[in-house]
Amino acid sequence: MISGFGSAAEPVSRLIEEFHKLPGIGPKSAARLTYHLLRMPENQARSLAEAIVAVKERIVLCSLCQNLTDTDPCAICGSTERDRTMICVVEEPLDILALERTGGYNGLYHVLHGVISPIEGIGPDELKIGELLARLRDGSVAEVILATNPSLEGEATGMYLQRLISPFGLRVTCLARGLPVGGDLEYADEVTLARALEGRRAL
C-alpha cells in the first residue's frame, strides 16, 4: 500500500497501486491519474479499458522481426516495397517508430527486446538474437545495421552481435554517433536520426 492513500476506497487505492507499478509513475502521479479517471465520462473510461484489453489480447510478436503487431508478419515485413537486403537491429519496438519518422530508411528491422546487461541478469539468451541469426542464413541480407542505443549496454550488445554476424560475411555497420552518449533512440529528433543513418560506418 502506498503511504498516504490507505484511507481511500479499496477500488481507488487499488488503481493507484496499479498505476504506481508503471515505469516513471510515482505515488503522486498515480493518484492524479486515478482521480482524473474518476472524473472522466464513463464512455471514455470504458474506451481506455477496452484499449488496454485489446492490446493484451491482440498484439503479438512478428515471427520475422519480433516487432509488436496485430498481424503476422507485420506490415513492414510484409511490404513488397522495403529493401529486403538490409536489416536494422534495434533494442525496442519504440526505436522502430523513431527511425521510421525520419523517412530515411527503407529496409527491414529486427527487435532484440533489450540489451545484454549482466547487472540486471540479462544475457544473450534472453534477447531475440537467435531469431536474428536465423534470418541471416538464407543469404538474402547484405547489410546489418546495429542501431543499439549509445549506452554501455547498447555498445556491448552491438559488439557481441558483430562477432556473431562476422562469419556470415555481411557488411555490418552502426549508426554514426551524432546521437548523444547515454541517450535513447526514441527521444532523438528526426534530423539527428536521419544523419546518424546516413553516416553509419562499417565495424
Distance N to C terminus: 50 Å
Unreliable runs:
none
Domains (count): 2
- Would you list the SSEs in sequence order as H and E? HHHEEHEHEHEHEHE
Largest sheet: 5 strands, mixed
CATH hierarchy, class of the largest domain: Alpha Beta
Care to give the gist of this entry?
The protein has 203 residues and is of the alpha/beta class.
SSE topology:
Layout: H1 10-20, H2 27-39, H3 42-58, E1 60-61, E2 68-69, H4 75-78, E3 83-90, H5 93-102, E4 107-111, H6 129-136, E5 143-146, H7 152-165, E6 171-174, H8 190-198, E7 201-202
Parallel strand pairs: 3-4, 3-5, 5-6
Antiparallel strand pairs: 1-2, 6-7
Helix pairs in contact: 1-2, 5-8
Characterization of this structure:
The protein is built from 8 helices and 7 strands; from the N terminus they run H-H-H-E-E-H-E-H-E-H-E-H-E-H-E. It has 203 residues and is α/β, with parallel strands linked by helices. The chain folds into 2 domains: 10-58, Helicase, Ruva Protein, domain 3 (Orthogonal Bundle), CATH 1.10.8.420; 68-202, Dna Topoisomerase Vi A Subunit, Chain: A, domain 2 (3-Layer(aba) Sandwich). A 5-stranded mixed β-sheet has the order 4-3-5-6-7. Strands 1-2 form a two-stranded antiparallel sheet. Helix 1 (10-20) crosses helix 2 and helix 5 (93-102) crosses helix 8. The longest helix has 17 residues, at 42-58. It is elongated and about 65 Å long. The model has no long low-confidence stretch (mean pLDDT 91).
